[in-house]
């Protein structure tokens, strides 16, 4: 099933579609956060076997496949047809839906579990997205998600600002605003800083490009990344003894459906 997307969501979908074939080989941070999200489900004593699960923002189906192996009936949903094609090639799910999580094409209380790893930050309205996820969850079910909070990619943003006065990085919601969006429901949230290190700036930028985040880092004042511009950005980037540091402010959340 394919549903129409807004122009903004089409741009995001296109960026991820271009990265789809090599996504799994580069998305170490995403895979790590997703495994921690599965651990969160386990710690909440949620059994996946024989459950109807929707993987919202499934990407290549990396976690759809893992959840399916645990005996669940999985629906894989993503903005990007390119990502869904990779997931379909893996036989990662029972069905594949190309749609926006802010307008889900499902009846109320369709799924036992909603799983969403690093997708919610792409939504234009977090409250709307969470309300939709809550709506399609069965009574007694759970929604688990990861997202990014304010301060993510701060080193890159600061380096760009030194270079030309622009951050070139989208603003993420503060942890306080994310918490406020969860207030209507019983929930638990955790903020976890995750630091990645890269030997050079080219590989740091490639890690973002390779996961489809070109839209996120392009900025309105971007322009082409020439060799000279890359060198200038390297000089502006804060260095550490471990290499070039890039911080993600990862939010882990669980919402309980009454």
Automatic annotation (TrEMBL):
Residues 54-145 form the Methyltransferase type domain. The keyword Amino-acid biosynthesis does not apply. Keywords: Biotin biosynthesis, Methyltransferase, S-adenosyl-L-methionine, Transferase. One of its GO terms (molecular function) is carboxyl-O-methyltransferase activity. It is an enzyme of class 2 (transferase). Pfam families: Methyltransf_11 (PF08241). One of its GO terms (biological process) is methylation. It comes from the Bacteria. InterPro entries: BioC (IPR011814), Methyltransf_11 (IPR013216), SAM-dependent_MTases_sf (IPR029063). Pathway: Cofactor biosynthesis; biotin biosynthesis. Its EC number is 2.1.1.197. It catalyses: malonyl-[ACP] + S-adenosyl-L-methionine = malonyl-[ACP] methyl ester + S-adenosyl-L-homocysteine. Converts the free carboxyl group of a malonyl-thioester to its methyl ester by transfer of a methyl group from S-adenosyl-L-methionine (SAM). It allows to synthesize pimeloyl-ACP via the fatty acid synthetic pathway. Belongs to the methyltransferase superfamily. This is Malonyl-[acyl-carrier protein] O-methyltransferase. It comes from Providencia vermicola.
């Amino acid at each position: 099933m394919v549903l129409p997307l807004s122009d903004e969501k089409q741009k995001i979908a296109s960026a991820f579609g271009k990265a789809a074939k090599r996504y799994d080989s580069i998305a170490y941070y995403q895979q790590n956060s997703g495994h921690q999200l599965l651990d969160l489900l386990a710690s909440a004593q949620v059994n996946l076997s024989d459950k109807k699960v929707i993987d919202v923002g499934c990407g290549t189906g990396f976690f759809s496949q893992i959840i399916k192996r645990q005996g669940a009936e999985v629906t894989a949903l993503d903005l990007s047809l390119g990502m869904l094609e990779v997931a379909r090639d893996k036989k990662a799910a029972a069905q594949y839906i190309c749609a926006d999580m802010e307008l889900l094409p499902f009846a109320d209380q369709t799924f036992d579990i909603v799983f969403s790893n690093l997708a919610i930050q792409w939504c234009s309205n977090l409250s709307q997205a969470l309300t939709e996820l809550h709506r399609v969850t069965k009574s007694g079910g759970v929604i688990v998600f990861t997202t990014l909070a304010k301060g993510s990619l701060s080193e890159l943003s600061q380096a760009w600002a030194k270079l030309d006065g622009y951050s070139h990085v989208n603003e993420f919601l503060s942890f306080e605003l994310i918490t406020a969006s969860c207030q209507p429901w019983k929930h638990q949230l955790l903020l976890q800083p995750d630091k990645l290190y890269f030997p050079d700036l080219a590989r740091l930028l490639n890690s973002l490009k390779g996961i489809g985040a070109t839209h996120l880092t392009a900025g309105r004042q971007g322009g082409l990344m020439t060799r000279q511009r890359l060198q200038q950005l390297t000089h502006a980037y804060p260095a550490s003894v471990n290499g070039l540091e890039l911080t993600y402010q990862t939010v882990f959340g669980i919402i309980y459906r009454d």
